[in-house]
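Hey L., structure's done. Input below.
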Amino acid sequence: MSPVEESTSRAPSARRGRVVLVAKALAGAALLGAVGLGYWLSARDRPLGELASELRRGDTARFEWQSIDRKHWQAIADTPGESPEITDAREGTSLGCAPGMVRVKGAFRRELHGAATGEVERLQDAACTDWISREFPARCRVFDREKIATEIAKLPTQPMDYCIDRFEYPNVLGHNPMIVATFREAEATCKKGGKRLCTENEWTFACEGEEARPYPYGWTRDTTACVIDRAWRPFTEGGLQPRDGKTAREELDRLWQGEPSGSRGGCRSPFGVYDLTGNVDEWTRSVNTKGYRSILKGGYWGPVRARCRPATRAHNEDFVAYQQSFRCCAESNASVAAPEPVPPVASVVGDGGALTTLAPHADAGPPRATVDLEAEWTPSSSDDELEALAKTRAARCSSVDAPAAGVSATGLGLATLALVAGLERRRRRASS
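Output:
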């Protein structure tokens, strides 16, 4: 073979060698990038599936949003809503109250000196006959109604007579609640409307009634009655700053899993108040002399407790988060007789977007479609889900299991390495 022919035969082999070297370098970079991405996602509790969904979604919003006072947000519903006067006429629970409000009158089972001590919640826990989970957020499937009645009969009562918004603010059937409100802003909004923020005892009584029901609809946990138990979506630290910005809107669009007020006729208290548990957290005023004045009640759409008595006491008056809302209270006209309790029938927003009517919901036997649900985070003794979630993230970041997400994210790099190996095999066969 002449020198020219030998040089010519070696040229393709040299080019293939350079291609292989470049491919190996790219594979190494991809592998390191994938591992780094895995660690980054693990530190933020962000599963790869969720990231992939966000990338596929792109800039397309799930909901249409409106900013209110450059502080608060509201997802615009598909229906125009219903005027409070029409809802009042159908419900028949507003005698002695302003339009859109429900009259609450009766004997509240109070704890020591009218404070919130957790006594009734402990009595209810002792009467649970079927636990879903005893760890945070403790959830009971079935409570013994007679046992609760026997125990609360030993407690003193406090007469109450007041009015409370039928729905979460802005208190319109078919509208989504306004969210991202601080305690101080909730107080100011109620005051501006000639009302006041409810005390935690007023909120609790409107939810549980004179029988101290664990759930507003009764003693058996129904996963379909209220908006609860939806999968928790990790939030982004600082994602709501500034509150009126595009980043905040996109963060809320990703996180929002609530429903328009009154969407579920079963989520109704003995007095006719809707959505007290689930959907969104609600600010109330503390009845205790120590600690923060700002108390959250009811839980929201995530896998939390969603009972009438529990409360979150971990946040100050300026704390703001994506799921926070409120409803208002006011004094009643005591000269007007309070309405008699009525069966829970509600106009609600149906699947087609139109206002429809649901049949009465009763606490009779096992709930519909009840399923066992595991907590989405490590159990904690805290009474606040956000604090527990923060502790879980910190524990995961410092544990030896943290690289697991990174390892699972190396699929791209491994696939590239497999491609390189294939090219190398082809080069060897060609040169042999």
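Residues 12-43+402-431 form one domain. The chain has two domains: 12-43+402-431, 64-397.

-- N.
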